[in-house]
Specification:
The structure is a homodimer of 470-residue chains.
Chain A (H helix, E strand, L loop, with lengths): L1 E2 L2 E2 L5 H11 L3 E3 L6 E3 L1 H20 L3 E2 L5 E3 H4 L3 H7 L4 E6 L2 E9 L4 H11 L8 E10 L13 E11 L2 H23 L5 E4 L11 E8 L5 E11 L1 H6 L2 E3 L5 E3 L1 E8 L1 H10 L16 E5 L4 H16 L4 E4 L6 H11 L3 E5 L1 H5 L2 E6 L4 E6 L3 H26 L1 E3 L3 H8 L3 E5 H14 L3 E6 L16 E5 L3
Helix pairs in contact in A: 2-6
Chain lengths: 470, 470
């Protein structure tokens, strides 16, 4: 059942995922169960994702800052739903500097509490609003069923926290982040189609009044929550006493948002685009967009390979030279395929004597013989195609596995292999409970045309997207 | 004794430091004693430092990765000196997911142990060497006398960890990092002169065979250790069983290095360049190199200010517009001075009517009236001067406060207000003990001409730089 080095996706998707993550040297298990090491290939993808997200976050006006990892345990209890949601997952520091601490400290599972304790200090007047802050950080959640890159006991993410003078402004900002930062990065950089909508009360972030989400469909038809943006109302503002004096000098509580995406996105790229030969990376997220492989050591081959690397690099592509000729060509070729490098250029003495090289397009597994002088042009043309073609393929897959249904039973059946779209009127709160008994859930609510709900929409008039989630 | 908003450096340097860090909105205290919040102005400096360091680290061939925060307590004990050095400073997680853990977990104070446990798995053959890894991360050390940005219970840093086939190669790499990454960033980006040398056995990193260091002199004459690069010999390789088979197939232990710089560098910039009016930033580390201030709201002023911001931005400068005219001009001007923005351009209706604006050079506190059409050229010219002039000033200060001495007594006297340089032959191990009773220490050892020691140098032939350190 294996093609090349790994099991096929159809035979065993979870094992396929593990084998790709391990084989492509993306991540490894840490010594503490459930913790994760992100290896250079995985981290290189994360760095490119970070740059894409960070640029858009700054364009949305937020500034980066950094807040402490350790939070007094008592802070968590200040917002009732928040503590209920997070307390089963906490890691707790009880000793510091060889002594038992007076108050235990929680390792942040998310930073609403600590950040808002500072917002209360920094925000005085309407002139201090909006306050738009983002941080890049690690967080710890004691997950029971850890899985590399998808659900680990520690992960990396960005978390945005903002304070506004009105509910409407907070809502508009939460949606701006969802659209202009998250959806845009997922579609344009990761070439992953995602549905946007909001969560039901059951699936909402602990402490939020509304959670907006980006939901992707993975290669096995299951749903992955890829990023969320929350309206927090005045819940934390009241818990932490965050008030500002308005233009008339009256004290008012701020309205807030928080939003985050994590290293889980790396897992989404694996499961959203991978095939039976491994990872397939969109060029925007490929630590190497092109690898030039020397088939064997040879003076002419080395000269041509180095010239090509320099030429492609000067055109702005991320290129690597693979001159590890002590390892067999076949083995190296399979390894780069597994790592998902979009284009491989293979140079051997025989082809070179005829002025040719072989260019391999990873996502199509298509080999072509190309005249040496045309390689730069050919590679650029391929790289322009990869992202849109991966996107189209993933979108067609999702559309093919999404069914519009009218009853709970039909929804359950359809959601076993993909998404079911069902009017909330036909589902109701009871239907949501029954989905849960099948390990299914409402991934998001949308208007029937797929657009986001507006404040005036009744939930009964919305459509639920039902799926089995990671 | 205060000029503007803050106390003068001469009156009370520690208070001056606190007031600059708070007043420039660089950092704040976290709710847990000794923890720190890095605010956007401080974090903006850190982002620029990170970019400078990261580019050089990658040029040195290291790749970024990420390793777990939580380390089994037993790992720390595997290297004897390492555990002795770090155990008084550890924060310990004893509970996770609501249960007491079977083995307590240490929050990483540094990552030699966890990273080397993975190196042991990844390294098999000489083909896997050198392995050059860097991570950007937070670490926790339970400091007893915390101080914002200089010594906090959590800080951000990068830590590099490498494995090599020979001692000579490891040594060369540790020195390459010291010179091409650390010294280069400190001099070229931070405009801070630093001495390089190695530590005595007493001051060495716990577990290292040799620690190389960059030492700066702060505005009060005290020394700040700004970055270290360690040769680890085979200490961790033996503790964690990191072996490779050489070309003949024989198993050998690897030779290793580790190296780090932290957010302490932000504190170094404050104390190395600040004056009685606040921070003075070298342009390479200024989140805003230029701020254009509208003195008051006025159509012509706004048009001119916005055009100037666009023009300076298109020349590649980081520029901000300050149009917060509801706040008095004087107050805003003092605030930007405190934040250390290298150039301020002040635009008011009266000057503008004559086609003029005021350009203020922060590090010299020099105001000049400039014709509007010449502002772009003038600002560029000033920005080119700032870095070299700050460097020259800091270097002259250090040279003026450094004395060459011949006896321990002279060294103690000189080190009370700066650095003393003394032959190790005249100091010896006993002299080093006596310095410690005065809270003084050997900051680094150098050859008498200031260059780095070579393996063949006897310690007695070297010169000790003695100072009082942060």
């Amino acid at each position: 059942m294996t093609k090349g080095a790994i099991v096929s996706r159809d035979a065993d998707f979870p094992r396929w995922y593990q084998e790709v993550v391990a084989g492509a040297e993306m991540a490894d298990n840490g010594p503490v169960r459930g913790t994760m090491v992100i290896r250079p290939w995985g981290y290189g993808i994360w760095e490119l994702l970070q740059a894409e997200l960070d640029r858009r976050i700054k364009e949305a006006g937020a500034e980066n800052a950094y807040f402490p990892l350790l939070i007094p345990e008592s802070f968590l209890s200040l917002e009732a739903e928040h503590v209920e949601g997070f307390s089963p997952e906490l890691a707790v520091v009880t000793h510091g500097g060889g002594k038992k601490l007076e108050e235990p400290l929680v390792v942040r599972p998310t930073s609403e509490t600590v950040i808002n304790s500072l917002f209360a200090k920094w925000i005085q007047s309407y002139r201090d609003l909006p306050l738009l802050i983002n941080q890049w950080a690690n967080v710890v959640r004691w997950e029971l069923r850890p899985r590399l890159l998808l659900r680990s006991r520690e992960f990396l993410w960005q978390e945005g926290h903002t304070a506004h003078a009105s509910e409407a402004e907070a809502r508009a900002y939460a949606l701006q982040i969802l659209r202009d930062v998250y959806h845009s990065t997922m579609v344009e950089a990761a070439s992953l189609p995602v549905l946007t909508g909001h969560k039901t009360a059951r699936e909402r972030f602990a402490g939020a009044t509304r959670t907006w989400t980006c939901e992707g469909m993975m290669g096995d038809g299951k749903a992955l929550q890829m990023g969320t943006s929350h309206e927090l109302g005045q819940n934390f503002a009241k818990a932490f006493g965050i008030t500002y004096s308005n233009a008339e000098g009256t004290a008012e509580h701020v309205w807030q948002t928080s939003w985050g995406v994590s290293t889980r996105l790396i897992g989404a790229v694996v499961m959203g685009h991978g095939d039976d030969y491994g990872l397939r990376l969109p060029p925007a997220l490929a630590p190497a967009e092109v690898v030039v492989l020397m088939i064997k050591e040879d003076e002419g081959v080395r000269t041509a390979a180095e010239a090509l690397v320099a030429d492609l690099g000067s055109q702005g592509h991320r290129v690597r030279l693979d001159d590890r000729v002590e390892t067999s060509f076949g083995r190296r070729s399979v390894a780069w395929e597994l790592k998902g490098v979009p284009v491989r250029v293979e140079i051997g003495p025989r082809d070179l004597a005829e002025g040719h090289v072989t260019v391999v397009t990873r996502h199509l597994r298509e080999k072509r013989t190309v005249v040496l002088s045309a390689v730069g042009h050919e590679v650029t043309a391929i790289l322009e195609r990869v992202g849109p073609e991966l996107y189209a393929e993933a979108e067609a897959m999702r559309e093919g596995r999404t069914a519009d249904v009218g009853t709970l039973e039909e929804a359950i059946e359809a959601a076993n292999s993909g998404f079911a779209r069902i009017p909330m009127r036909a589902l109701g709160a009871e239907g949501e409970d029954r989905l849960a008994t099948q390990a299914l859930s409402i991934r998001c609510l949308q208007r029937p045309d797929g657009s986001l709900a507006e404040p005036e929409d009744a939930e009964a008039d919305l459509t639920a997207v039902v799926g089995r989630s990671y």
